[in-house]
Amino acid sequence: MMDGLAISILIFAISLAVLIKASDFFTDAAEKVGLMAGLPPFIIGVTIVAIGTSIPELVSSLVAVSQNSSEIVIGNVIGSNVANIFLIVGVASIISTQSLLINYDLVSVDLPLFIGSSFLLSLIVWDLKFSLYEGILLIVGYIFYIFYAIENGKETNVEEEENEGDEKDSLVKDIVILVASSVFIFFGATYTIQSISSISGILGIGKEVIAISAVAIGTSLPELLVTISAARKGKPEMAVGNVLGSNIFNSFLVMGIPRLFGQFTMPAEVIQLGIPVMVCASLLLFFVTQDKKVTQWEGWLFIIFYAWFVSQFLEFF
User: Fold this and answer.
1) Cβ neighbours of 285 (radius 10 Å)
2) Percentage helix, strand, coil, to 5, in the chain?
3) Which regions of 51-95 does DSSP assign to beta strands (E)?
4) Where in 149-252 does DSSP place strands (E)?
5) Is residue 27 within 8 Å of residue 54, measured between CB atoms?
6) H/E element holding 101?
7) pLDDT tens digit sequence for 88-128
8) Which residues in 132-158 are b (16+ Cβ under 10 Å) and which e?
9) Nearest to 138, CA basis, from 47, 252, 48, 49
10) Which CATH superfamily is domain 2-314 in?
11) Which residue from 4, 137, 163, 189 has the least number of CB within 10 angstroms?
12) CB–CB of 45/237 below 8 Å?
C-alpha cells in the first residue's frame, strides 16, 4: 500500500510540474504568435496571457469530467481562487518594500466583475446542483468580461508595435512550441487527475479534498512565482491584476466549459466551507483595495487566513 501511495504521489508531483511548465511555454509562444499576427498588445494581455495562467486549472478540470471525477472541478476552482487572494496577494504585499499599490483602472474595471463572478458562482452551486444552462451562463459572463475589458482598454492602448526581426523563423519555432506544449499539457493533466484518483482511493479521502488543497496550491504556483519576481523588480501591483483576471477566469470558464462535456458532482463539505471562505476572501480584497494599496500587515493577515483555510481540510487526511 505504501509503495503504491509513494508512486502515486511521485506521479502526481511530476505530472503537475509538467502541466504547469508546459502551460508557461504555451502562453509565451501564443503571445508571440499573437503579436506577429498583428493583434494589439492589450488584446493579447486580456485574452492569451490571462487565459494562459489558468490553463492548468481548465485542462485538469476538463480531464476530470472526462474521467468521471467532476467533484475535483469545484474543489480546484474554490481552492485556486482562495489561494490566489490570500496566498498570492499576501506574499506580494509582504515582499514589497512599501505598500502594494494598485492603479485606478484595475479598481474601476476588474474589481467589480471580480466580486460579481464570485457571487454568481456561489449562488449557482450553493444548492449542490449545476445545470447545463448555468454552465452556459458562466461562459457568457466571461465573454461579457472580455468585451468590457477590451472596450475600457481601447482608450489607453497606445503601446508600440513589437520589432519584427527574424519573423518567419520565429513564427515556425513558436508554432512548434505551441503544438508540443499542448501535447504535454494534455498528458500532464491526464496523469494529474489519475494520480489524484489513486491517492484518494488509497487514503480513503475525497478527490475534492486533494483538489482544494494540493492541486489548488500546485496550479497557483505560476502566479506565485510571477508575484515574487514582480515584487522583487518593484512591480508588485501586477500580482493583484493577475489574481483578479485568474479568479474571474476560474469562476466563469473553468466551471462553465467542463459542464458542456458532462454532469457535475457537487461535494457538500467543499461547498459549505469553501464557498463562504471564497466569498469572504473576495469581499476582504475588495474592501482592502479601496484605498488602492495593500499594506504589509494586511498581507500577513491574508497569509494567516490561508493557513486557517488549509488547516480545515487537513483533518480529512
Assistant:
1) 24
2) 80, 0, 20
3) none
4) none
5) no
6) strand 100-101
7) 888 888 887 666 666 656 666 678 888 999 999 999 999 99
8) eebbeebbebbeebbeebeebbeeeee
9) 252
10) NCX, central ion-binding region (1.20.1420.30)
11) 163
12) no
In terms of residues, how long is the chain?
Answer: 317
Residue with C-alpha cell 508540443? 180
Q: Which three cell numbers stand for residue 258?
A: 467542463
Provide the grid cell at 15: 505530472
- CA–CA gap between residue 120 and residue 116 (Å, rounded): 6
| Amino acid at position 309, single letter | F
**What's the rounded Cα separation, in Å, for the pair 63 and 65?**
5
Give the whole-angstrom CA distance, residue 23 versus residue 16. 11
**65-96, pLDDT tens digit by residue?**
988 888 888 988 998 899 989 998 888 888 87
C-alpha cell of residue 244: 483578479
Give residue limits of the domains in the chain: 2-314
**Cell digits of residue 151:** 472596450
Instruction: Answer yes or no: are the C-beta atoms of 72 and 190 closer than 8 Å.
Output: no
Q: What's the chain's Rg over C-alpha atoms?
A: 19
Handedness of CA 26, 230, 284, 110 (dihedral sign): negative
Amino acid found at 34: G
Buried b (16+ CB within 10 A) or exposed e, 1-15: eeeeeeebeebbeeb
